[in-house]
Write a sequence for this structure.
């Protein structure tokens, strides 16, 4: 982070989020459920309201409200292209959510497979980047190989990837960061290995996006998906694909359909009010990197996003260090995944924990009664919980911080966990 960019202060930012003002029994609620969905700043809410108030229509009409929908859609593509560093806005397509997009794209990609081909999935992924490929592989007679993770620190075993890749490998589906245990994957390295074997790379960046800067060109992934509601926007899924591949593949669409990307990948009418919110969410993040410029606006926004995400990462690493230091003092609290403070850059501030004497559901319920919102269970990271032997035991408690959380909130959840632990003893 540049010395000219001040450290992030969440206190003034929190005033922009109406939901963060909510109280439970007279105390401000603590939102530690960010991995399941973040809250939205007022500008996102206003953008969605303003679109609907202006008058809505579908794309391509020769009249005012339709041209407005065209403009809102184009702005959202450009904003997300900046966020991901795509080569052109036409490499960005929108959908209902990441899961729906992945099912659609997996079906299209699977048309290129033959019996005897192979794909590689990872046990660290959310099931939305596993189940679609399993179903496609079953339908096409394709062999599925698995890339495991180390159950000790929950990091992906990329050293084992070369042994899985063969001349028959067609796809590597991989997570950028685990939504369960927070581990970050070296996608650039994985993509280089997969490409050397002639395979495409499909990346789930849903959990990674709010925590660090994405660069699809540097990573050289072929496809990448995320969801705007995980980075302070509305419930909209986003697909990036290299233009040549989006153009080459046959999408499943009604007739007549756009023949060129990105329209050929967008099924049905999009939620244009949500697309207005997507642009507002990206601009919110960019503003954390400093004031914008009036000229060369696209380059300026990408530069501001880079500064913003550097500030966010540095701040969240401090929250992680605080949480891990305090967790060691809570009797019976076990943190899964990376706990070495020297390796905080290898994880997001998302922690899966268990507390002796309580089921995960009991912990989440008791914290929720105190206005501390956390998830319990498997959070659709089914393969992760299976590998850890916890799927049939209620999974784990997930505590996830984002940049609007404060050190005081870290202390509050640690104090609540400590009180539960001592009550159990």
């Amino acid at each position: 982070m540049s010395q000219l960019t001040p450290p992030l202060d969440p206190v003034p930012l929190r005033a922009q989020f109406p939901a963060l003002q909510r109280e439970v029994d007279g105390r401000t609620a603590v939102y530690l459920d960010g991995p399941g969905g973040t809250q939205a700043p007022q500008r996102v809410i206003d953008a969605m309201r303003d679109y609907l108030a202006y008058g809505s229509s579908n794309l391509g009409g020769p009249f005012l409200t339709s041209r407005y929908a065209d403009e809102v859609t184009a702005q959202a593509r450009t904003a997300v292209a900046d966020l991901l560093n795509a080569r052109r806005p036409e490499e960005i397509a929108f959908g209902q959510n990441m899961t729906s997009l992945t099912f659609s794209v997996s079906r299209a990609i699977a048309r290129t497979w033959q019996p005897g081909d192979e794909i590689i999935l990872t046990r660290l992924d959310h099931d939305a980047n596993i189940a679609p490929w399993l179903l496609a592989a079953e339908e096409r007679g394709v062999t599925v190989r698995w890339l495991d993770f180390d159950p000790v620190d929950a990091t992906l075993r990329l050293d084992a990837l070369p042994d899985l890749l063969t001349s028959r490998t067609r796809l590597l589906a991989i997570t950028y960061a685990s939504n369960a245990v927070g581990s970050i994957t070296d996608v650039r390295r994985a993509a280089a290995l997969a490409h050397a074997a002639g395979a495409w790379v499909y990346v789930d960046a849903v959990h990674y996006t709010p925590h660090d800067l994405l660069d699809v060109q540097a990573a050289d992934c072929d496809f990448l998906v995320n969801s705007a509601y995980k980075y302070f926007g509305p419930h909209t899924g986003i697909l990036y694909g290299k233009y040549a591949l989006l153009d080459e593949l046959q999408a499943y669409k009604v007739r007549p359909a756009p023949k060129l990307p990105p329209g050929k990948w967008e099924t049905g009418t999009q939620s244009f009010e949500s697309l207005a919110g997507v642009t507002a969410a990206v601009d919110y993040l960019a503003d954390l990197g400093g004031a914008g410029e009036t000229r060369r606006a696209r380059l300026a926004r990408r530069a501001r996003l880079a500064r913003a995400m550097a500030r966010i990462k540095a701040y969240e690493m401090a929250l992680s260090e605080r949480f891990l230091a305090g967790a060691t003092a809570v009797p019976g609290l076990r943190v899964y995944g990376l706990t070495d403070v020297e390796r905080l850059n290898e994880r997001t501030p998302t922690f899966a924990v268990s507390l002796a004497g309580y089921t995960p559901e009991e912990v989440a319920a008791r914290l929720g009664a105190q206005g501390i919102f956390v998830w319990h269970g498997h959070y659709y990271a089914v393969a992760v919980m299976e590998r850890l032997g916890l799927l049939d035991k209620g999974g784990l408690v997930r505590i996830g911080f984002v940049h609007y959380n404060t050190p005081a909130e870290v202390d509050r959840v640690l104090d609540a966990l400590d009180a539960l632990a001592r009550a159990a003893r």
